[in-house]
């Protein structure tokens, strides 16, 4: 999974009563969720928002102070720790001045630092981990009642996050987890110790959640897991047989969902990426021609030290197969610079692979040791100044590749799903932003449109590419076609999708139980 550090805030409208809580009291309390880290954390925050709304909390208005601030944390990089504790310090005076205000810390850093969060920030009210998100409303109520901090960190997952309600961040695009945890033992990664061993959801539960989103107008779904292509080998339901081809089958099944226009997934592992997945991608029309394939290093010696069970030749062979089946596929990656023991020769091999792979973009990181990982105690840690210099060279090479690859697309027509994150890029050019099917970001000239012709996030347009930059494309040729969608209607009305709890808890018996059926949430007309 790409580790892109970001901060997002979420929390939406009033929900229903939560079991065991005083929803009447909670209904007057506002909340805010601040998210740091990867896609998995962003999706977990949607579950947190859903839980809080079910307990009667309401969204804090933009720019206002919240009665509850929840930090959903990342532990992959050191600056994640620094950012969290810095923000907690900034909130300390506000909490002192506002009796009844609460602060909760959850996620990967809370799981890792369960014994030290309160020592560093004693004004925090609740600390919860990656395995017990569902406990948050109860812990908050207990902290209020007992007037003391509550810490609950489970070592293993007791139920899938999908069995919790979710309040989504987007009207047109949604995350759907296929699994939790990871069975790999990469020496630089702390995720397996924080999220546990991989446990896969039943296919019917995954498809039911996808259907629930589509029923509310969502056009695009991203299947999410630490290692999505291992799906099928670690089902949480003991009655579900292991199936090495389950992920390819899941992609094909998504192709049969009417109204689902785009399917993406992240992230696969090169060691377990199989030809049946490539075939499913190429043969399923709504699966996008986009693949995120983490490289980490181009040196076989470093890959072995990282405990990455593939080598340079296998990696490049996968890319060749993908491009043979989908010539215009956009392939992205993750790369770590300065892993312990990396020599100049090792780094040059990484540059050689990057030059050969022609990635459309890359998430690049300077290695930083994380306590609790084998790599943190390895000898021959690379000096920071050497890591920094190599990092600059890698960035320069990848930027040039990105620009060249994007320039080759100028003059072609693209279909864009209009997105909200970037907004209008220029009042003079009247540009909006969309995502192409291959995932590339495109700023396009929308023109001066009014009334029914206004283009909204969630709508679909076609246009022609006229310019390129390393990280985006320009389309100033005007909009060819504009299709208004239910997702655009929902976004315009500030109506985000919600999904009810879907599926069974871990290890629940299924003998005699009916198979999972697609779940419809909202009215048949898609009004949500």
TrEMBL record:
Keywords: 4Fe-4S, Cytoplasm, Iron, Iron-sulfur, Metal-binding, S-adenosyl-L-methionine, Transferase, tRNA processing. Residues 168-405 form the Radical SAM core domain. The keyword Metal-binding applies. It comes from the Bacteria. It is found in: Cytoplasm. One of its GO terms (cellular component) is cytosol. Binds 2 [4Fe-4S] clusters. One cluster is coordinated with 3 cysteines and an exchangeable S-adenosyl-L-methionine. The keyword Iron-sulfur applies. Its main location: cytoplasm. Monomer. Catalyzes the methylthiolation of N6-(dimethylallyl)adenosine (i(6)A), leading to the formation of 2-methylthio-N6-(dimethylallyl)adenosine (ms(2)i(6)A) at position 37 in tRNAs that read codons beginning with uridine. This is tRNA-2-methylthio-N(6)-dimethylallyladenosine synthase. It comes from Gordonia insulae. The lineage of its organism: Bacteria, Bacillati, Actinomycetota, Actinomycetes, Mycobacteriales. The gene is miaB.
